[in-house]
Write a structure and sequence with these properties.
272 residues; alpha/beta; 7-stranded mixed beta sheet; 3-stranded antiparallel beta sheet; 5 helices; 10 strands; globular
Length: 272
């Protein structure tokens, strides 16, 4: 599913931002305390660089212990909606700040995940990103995060409440069971997608982008001692659907939204 230009208010492309006094940000302990029991398995790192030039910014595929291969693939996911390497957002400087990760505590399946990046030199604004396909919360690391954190935006993302897939068979000419589907039409690799589970209806996609926005606003206030002046929703493909539903369901949370085709960039030359 691809949604094109649902809403484009106070656009991010080429946005000229008035000088905002640098806000001293809190340490990890204070921000985690503000998130409270809304989160589970939360981690926080005071990072020297929140861009993907720092290898620690995006976790390795299959790096969460206890999950089957294919369930959590952030390094793969970040390339899915991004331009090819020569056309990606240039990284011109390191962006120090806090990176927080974890699960939404209210998900009984334990699949719903979130990500927050809070630059030390904050511009007073927040970007909340959707995720395409069944991708992880790192899906926008190339396409969205690298651009916005260098501009001083706080950045939040989530995985629509669902993990990616589980490999059922690596080589079978026919379906191993009734829940399996081919990885692609020509493949003999068979997988089962977590979002086919009855506990993961598509209606949760809206719930988790809104919950992510509320979580991010709480973290921003704890980190910078004031709420964001403006909050924008961004997303591509299924993430674009999340944007549309988010601004429809909770207009009080968002000042604008932007969506694009797969392999888009937030920059004007590749935004659809």
């Amino acid at each position: 599913m691809t949604i094109h230009k649902v809403l484009y208010l106070a656009p991010l492309v080429g946005l000229s931002i008035a000088a905002v006094p640098r806000a001293a940000h809190a340490d990890c302990r204070a921000v985690l305390a503000a998130l409270g029991d809304r989160v589970a398995d939360a981690t926080c790192v005071d990072s020297a660089d929140l861009t993907t030039a720092n290898p620690a910014t995006t976790p390795a595929d299959n790096s969460i212990a206890g999950l089957p291969p294919g369930a959590f693939t952030p390094t793969t996911d970040r390339g899915v909606i991004a331009p090819d390497a020569p056309d990606r957002t240039p990284i011109t400087r390191a962006v120090p700040g806090l990176e927080l990760r974890g699960r939404f505590a209210d998900d009984p399946t334990g699949q719903a995940r979130w990500l927050l990046r809070l630059p030390a030199d904050w511009n007073g604004r927040l970007v909340v990103a959707g995720a395409s396909g069944t991708r992880s919360e790192d899906n926008g690391d190339f396409a969205w995060s690298d651009y916005v954190v260098q501009k001083g935006y706080a950045y939040a993302s989530q995985n629509k409440g669902v993990l990616n897939l589980q490999i059922v068979s690596l080589a079978s000419p026919t379906a191993p069971d009734a829940t399996a589907c081919r990885l692609n039409p020509a493949s003999q690799i068979w997988v089962r997608f977590f979002d086919d589970d009855p506990a993961k209806p598509f209606t949760q996609w809206t719930q988790y982008v809104l919950e992510d926005a509320r979580l991010a606003r709480r973290a921003v206030e704890a980190a910078y001692h004031r709420p964001p002046r403006f909050t924008y929703a961004v997303g591509t493909s299924n993430g674009g659907y999340q944007v549309r539903r988010a601004v429809e369901e909770a207009p009080e949370l968002f000042d604008g939204g932007s969506t694009g085709r797969a392999r888009s960039s937030i920059r004007g030359d590749r935004t659809s």
